[in-house]
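FORM 12-B: Structure-to-Sequence Request
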């Protein structure tokens, strides 16, 4: 029997509706600001999606647009200005930045209490220690999807394919905190297929079309495909060969429509929580 599709759009709608109701009762509305450097078309689409999400949830939204050749000091100053603004509770930087800019300097510039995607080192440290803090939106979205479909990570073997600071590493941490036994792999892992076949929960975010084929999926596994790629025909796809994996898995996320919408909804939730922490009621 084909796998059950994990509907990220439906879960995202539930999360955003809850945020909308909470915000509706607040006299001082939450605020989110996004910092965009350059004119990357994909980033523009991403930014437009954030604007729509905020409108749906009643959250004030602002975009700081900077030219691609902006200097480090000017970028840092823009972030520090957002730190001072009382109408802004969450700050989101569009990574990756142009090569001439130091991303770590920017991460350190964000006030930790406004760091709604958990990129500041102090928040990352709290995440690893299991301290209550903002969780990165994509890994947190994966955990919400697992919860929504009744998949408990406890006692299960998880293979995480991908080791990025934004997704792979924090995802592995969240699964460990949920009592899963985690193996972290990547595109240079020897015999990746063997590592994947041992997973009760297989999560991939490597950014490689066709990397995970059906014979790499354990019968009855949960397959979560975070990656957003394009195939030879220009269509959106993930790392997983979906038509093959869907015949072996018990649950699987589609691409698009799986993790992505939940990521965006969690950002709205984190912004609302940041506002509450700032005393907005």
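FORM 12-B RESPONSE
SEQUENCE OUT:
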């Amino acid at each position: 029997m084909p796998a059950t599709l994990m509907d990220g759009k439906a879960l995202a709608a539930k999360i955003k509706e809850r945020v909308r109701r909470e915000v509706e009762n607040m006299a001082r509305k939450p605020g989110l600001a996004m910092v965009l450097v350059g004119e990357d078309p994909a980033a523009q689409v991403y930014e437009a999606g954030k604007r729509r999400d905020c409108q749906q949830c009643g959250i004030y939204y602002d975009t700081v647009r900077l030219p691609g050749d902006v200097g480090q000091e000017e970028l840092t100053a823009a972030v520090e200005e957002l730190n001072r603004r009382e109408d802004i509770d969450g700050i989101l930087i569009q990574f990756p930045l142009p090569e001439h800019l130091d991303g770590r300097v920017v991460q350190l510039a964000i006030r930790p209490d406004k760091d709604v995607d958990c990129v500041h080192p102090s928040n990352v440290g709290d995440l690893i220690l299991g301290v209550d803090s903002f969780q990165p939106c994509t890994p947190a979205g994966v955990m919400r999807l697992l919860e929504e479909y009744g998949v408990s990570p406890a006692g299960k073997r998880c293979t995480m394919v991908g080791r990025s600071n934004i997704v792979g590493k924090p995802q592995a941490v969240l699964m460990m905190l949920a009592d899963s036994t985690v193996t972290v792999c990547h595109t240079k892992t020897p015999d990746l297929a063997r590592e994947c076949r041992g997973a009760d929960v297989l999560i991939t975010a490597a950014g490689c079309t066709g990397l995970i084929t059906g014979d790499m999926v354990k019968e009855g596994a949960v397959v979560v495909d975070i990656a957003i790629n394009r195939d030879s025909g220009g269509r959106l796809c993930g790392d997983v060969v979906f038509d093959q994996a869907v015949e072996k898995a018990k649950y699987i996320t589609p691409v698009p429509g799986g993790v992505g919408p939940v990521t965006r909804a969690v950002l709205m939730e984190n912004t609302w929580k940041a506002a509450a922490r700032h005393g907005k009621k």
